[in-house]
Amino acid sequence: MKQKRKLAKEEFKYGWQEGERMGVVENADEDGTWEGAKVFVATTTSALAAGMKMSEKEEIWMGIGDWVQERRAERAALNSQ
Fold first, then answer.
1. How far is residue 31's CA from residue 45's CA, in Å, rounded to a whole number?
2. Taking the mean position of all CA atoms in its chain, how far away is CA 77?
């Protein structure tokens, strides 16, 4: 099991976490592993989280929104073939 360390405040970032995967499973496909799911960290959209402006929250959430739109377009293209 991997031991995790606490991140320093300056190390933390919202958005896609490069190099991080969740749910890595050995023996899941032909070569014996599943790389795991990509990790996206976002802030809450709740007004109770008053530490950020709504425009800052929106910018963070656009990262996952853009990815979702890309996946939908890819699937639509595959289904129309």
1. 40
2. 23
